[in-house]
Structures are given as structure tokens and as C-alpha cells.
Amino acid sequence: MAEKRDYYEVLGLGKSASEEEIKKAYRKLARQYHPDVNKADDAEAKFKEVKEAYDVLSDSGKRAQYDQYGHVDPNQGMGGGFSGDFGGFGDIFDMFFGGGGNRRDPNAPQRGNDLQYTMTIEFKEAVFGKETDITIPRTENCDTCNGSGAKPGTRPETCSVCHGSGQQEVVQNTPFGRMVNRRACSNCGGRGQIIREKCTTCGGNGKVKKQRKIHVRIPAGVDDGAQLRMAGEGEGGLRGGPAGDLYIIIRVKSHDFFDREGDDIYCEIPLTFAQAALGDEIEIPTLTEKVKLKIPAGTQTGTYFRLKGKGVPKLRGIGQGDQHVKVVVVTPSKLNEEQKELLRQFASLDGEFTHEHEQSFFDRMKRAFRGD
């Protein structure tokens, strides 16, 4: 079994990292390795590794015990692996040291989940930008009960068993002393509240599924794989907590004529033999217009010409990339007799031999080898 990496190393942080730094590092890496976005073979394993590291380091109690014991689970002895579940161990500390552990208030506001949406756009829409509306399904606070889950005119009651803590204590006397375990309250399911009369719209959940229309502005210059963040457009929070964010992944369709590399545009233009040999002035299509390009006499196939400033607008900056034009000399596949004769004359004047003379050339070469 492979040894687990240090959780701080997984997130790329030092041991003195703040809660905000841990959260920021997790969000960045989770987006990078999410299987829906990253199709690499090891992406899913890395995503799980990042999630496990965050689950431990984002909880102050688990983090403190990880800092002390590493991946060893104190509940299983020195040979066990770090499980991330410190219920029993934490309760023993509570008993001897007076509690005060990090217990999350079940009634505290909770941030909503982030959402992800993949949008496919045309090549030129990525270059020049676009505004559009999208519709996404998401959960939102119920308008009838304002997210409380209780019927209008009523309100949730504090659980009489756990008194709003969402936890119950189970006391056991053992040879090692009096042990206290805490678990989710069986009366309220760990919520800390009881809803006697549930909202008929959401059934007491405080949430409803809705189709949300959102206006999206795609900036000019985005490229395939770009990610746009729309703050607060994710799922609604719980108990008055803020909504999550919406992340839009951009997919750009290919173009029939243009290719793109960063902010530069590439294309190929065919030339006839005469144009390449004698030179010419031709029209080149760009992203916005047609421009004149002077072809010098004697241009070889594969030569590149640069059209400055005719590329993609820079996403984070001023100006535009360039357009690079590659010329390809096209050899005619069908010639009439007059054209063939003219080419024979050209070849003769240039000192070249044609296919018709090829046999006599090889005959002379054979005779030279024979010593004739």
C-alpha cells in the first residue's frame, strides 16, 4: 500500500497556513483535478487526495490531531491509518480537559454548493466575446417559508433533547474511567431544531429546485478550457448562509480556415507556381476584414508572412496578437498540351530534364558505369 503524502504538501502549503489559505488552495486544486474537467488518468485519484487533505486541515480539531500524530489514528494504535474520524478520541479529551473542542453549530449559516456549467461557443465568439443567457437547475431558498422549512406563521422549535446542539451524549463507565461519546441527536437528526408544521411548498427542507436564467458576459479573447466565475450564482446557502458560486467552463469549436495558438492566428493560403515564381499581390481573409498581402518573386512553399495586430484581443492586457499566413505552392494536376510544352521549354531553358528525357539520362548513366 502506497504511503500517504503529507496533507500540507498535497495542498502546496506550509504548516502555518491560515484557514483562508487552505480554502483557497483546495478550491484551486479541486477545479484543476475535477474529473469533469481534467481527463487525465490520475485526475480522479488526485482529486480525492486533495479532498481528503482539505477535510482534515479545514477542521481545527482534526488539524490539531493531524499535526501531532500525522496519518496515525490514535483510536487504532500506532499501526492504524489516519481515518479523519476523531469522535472517540475527541470525547476522551473533552472528559479530561474540560471540552471546548471545535463543535459546529448545526443551526449556523452554511454556504451553498458551487455549480459548474460547460458552455460551447463558436471560434469567433471566443475571439470577440459574447453576451448570452443560460438556464441552470439549482436549489434555492423556498420563497414560501424563506428557507426555514416551517409553515408560514410558525417557526422551528429548539430540540428539547439536545437543546439545539444537534448532539447527544452517551456516558459509559469503563475500567479506564468514565467515557463520554457524542453522536447526532436521534430526536432532530442532528439539526438542533424540530419543525412541527412543515412548509407545504418545500416539505420542510427549506429548499426548492428551480430553473434559473443567468446573463453571462464572455470577454473577448477567451480560449478553450477557460473558466469564468460568477459569484453567488451557485446553490443557495442554508439558514441564511451565502450562495455558492457558478463556474462556467468554456469549450471553443474549431474553425474551417483559422487555427489559434494563444493570441496568434494561423492560416494557409494556396499559390500557383506562377504567383510564387513571379510574385503577386493577393487578398488574405482576417478575423475582421480582407487585407492585401504582397508576395515577393521566388517565394518558396512553406514561407510564413506576419500580419501584425490581426490576431486575438489579449484577454488581460492591451492590443492583439498577430496573424501568420503560410503559403503553399500548389502543383497543377491537369495540364493541356500547350501548358506542357511551355513547361518543357521552361525546363530546357533552366537546364532541367523532364520525364520525357528521363530514360535517355539513365541510359547514359548506365553506359558510364559500364565504361562505355
Q: Your description of this structure?
A:
The protein is an alpha+beta fold. Helices cover 26% and strands 26% of the residues. The strands form 6 sheets. It has a 4-stranded mixed beta sheet with strand order 10-11-15-14. A 3-stranded mixed beta sheet has the order 1-9-8. A two-stranded antiparallel sheet has the order 2-7. Strand 10 and strand 11 (264-272) form a beta hairpin. The longest helix has 16 residues, at 355-370. It is elongated and about 110 Å long. The model is unreliable at 75-102 and 354-359 (pLDDT under 50).
Structure in a nutshell:
GO terms for molecular function: ATP binding; heat shock protein binding; unfolded protein binding; zinc ion binding. This protein is of the alpha+beta class.
Q: Spans with pLDDT under 50 lasting ≥5 residues? A: 75-102, 354-359
Beta-strand residue fraction:
25-35%
User: If you compute it from the alpha carbons, what radius of gyration comes out, rounded to the nearest whole angstrom?
Assistant: 35 Å
- pLDDT averaged residue by residue: 80
Output the helix-strand order: HHHHHEHEEEEEEEEEEHEEEEHH
Determine the fraction of residues in helical runs and give it as a percent range.
25-40%
Envelope shape: elongated
Oligomer: single chain
Main sheet overview:
4 strands, mixed
How many H/I helices?
Answer: 9
The CA-CA distance between the termini, in Å, is: 79 Å
Q: How many strand units? A: 15
Widest sheet: strand ordering: 10-11-15-14
Structural class: alpha+beta
